[in-house]
Specification:
- By secondary structure, this protein is of the alpha/beta class.
- It has one domain (10-299): 4-Layer Sandwich (Metallo-beta-lactamase, Chain A).
- 26% of the residues lie in helices and 24% in strands.
- The protein has helices at residues 10-16, 37-40, 75-79, 86-91, 102-108, 126-129, 144-148, 155-160, 172-175, 243-247, 263-279, 291-299, and strands spanning 24-36, 48-60, 64-68, 94-95, 118-120, 139-142, 176-178, 184-186, 199-202, 210-213, 222-228, 231-237, 284-287.
- The strands form 2 sheets. A 7-stranded mixed sheet has the order 4-1-2-3-5-6-7. It has a 6-stranded mixed sheet with strand order 8-9-10-11-12-13, covered by helices on one side.
- Strand 10 and strand 11 form a beta hairpin.
- The longest helix has 17 residues, at 263-279.
- The chain binds zinc ion (ZN).
- Zinc ion binds at residues 125, 127-128, 238, 288-289.
Length: 304
């Protein structure tokens, strides 16, 4: 009988030359917002749909619990009270209850938020970083470009880019761990030709978590490749907004492009995602706002 944990993608982990332990993964939903469906997926209807903000807890055998993003948090409402940030809340009405926050949900599962050692940030949009302040001890790991393009933005320019600087912890500079040059793994031409990325980042240095570049929705956005006992997984952040979108080749509408800094890069990342999913059918891809992923892995509680 074939073992679902084995994948052609294992060659990638072997290439890192590291032990690359398997991790386990649990998905959570931390609030939601509403958009007309046609904004999020080509051919969508004009009706308003609920878009969940998912985040993941990664359980590493040696490194403890590591988060991938945080979803919304109560702090979002405080930050979007005054204008011009209030425009953000008006454009994407958010539905959130305090018990849905990442820290509250982890606490309810018996995990102390103060004991979370690391959070990997896919990109710096508010719906991904709103909960950072609730994790006072976590190092914050990210692609340098993802923050460099946001850090100086203030006022309306920041709001237009989906960035609210007040969501960052006051000691962000001390806890920030942008990916270092020595964590880069360049993949030679011809190596695993179906793999559509020529670079990966060994986030922890043990080969277990490999970041790949998925820019376009935001500069420097990353996805995270990892392996569980059940097979390989990719947390693809907002490179697609749902499994249906990349499966059926239905990228978001041109209007959604208004908030994207680089539509061409988005299209290229979207194509890479489709290529990856086609070449490695055993790979489960989880988009941060995917209603199907929320239904299967959060509401129905299926194992990931
Ligand atoms: Zn998002």
């Amino acid at each position: 009988m074939s073992n679902p944990a084995h994948s052609k993608l294992d060659a990638l982990w072997a290439y890192t030359g590291r032990f690359a332990p398997r991790v386990s993964l649990r998905l959570f939903s931390a609030g939601s917002c509403r958009h007309p469906e046609w904004v999020t997926i080509r051919g969508g209807s004009p009706r308003s749909v609920r878009i969940p903000a998912l985040f993941a807890a990664i359980f590493h055998p040696d490194e403890g619990t590591i988060l991938f993003d945080t979803g919304y948090a109560q702090r979002f409402f405080r930050e979007t009270q005054p204008f011009p940030a209030r425009l953000y809340r008006m454009a994407t009405p958010v539905d959130f209850r305090p018990e849905q926050g990442a820290a509250a949900q982890l606490r309810a599962s018996g995990i102390d938020p103060a004991g979370i050692p690391r959070i990997i940030v896919s990109h710096f949009h508010a719906d991904h970083i709103a909960g950072l302040r609730d994790f006072p001890a976590a190092e914050l790991l990210y692609e340098p470009e993802a923050f460099d393009c946001m850090r100086r933005l203030r006022g309306i320019a920041a709001v237009r880019k989906g960035y609210l600087s007040g969501l960052l912890p006051d000691d962000f500079a001390e806890r920030a761990q942008p990916f270092a040059p020595e964590s880069r793994i360049e993949l030679p031409e011809g190596f695993l030709p179906e793999f559509p990325f020529r670079r990966a980042t060994d986030v922890l240095g043990d080969g277990s978590l490999l970041a790949v570049d998925l820019p376009g929705h935001a500069y420097g956005q990353i996805g995270l490749l990892l392996r569980t006992e059940r097979g390989p997984r990719l947390l693809c952040a907002d490179a697609a907004w749902s499994a249906a979108a990349y499966r059926e080749n239905r990228p978001p509408s041109a209007l959604a492009g208004v908030i994207m800094p680089d539509r061409r890069a988005y299209a290229a990342s979207f194509r890479r995602l489709r290529k990856l999913a086609a070449a490695f059918p055993e790979l489960t891809v989880i988009a941060s706002h995917c209603p199907e992923a929320e239904r299967l892995y959060v509401k129905e509680g299926r194992s990931l």
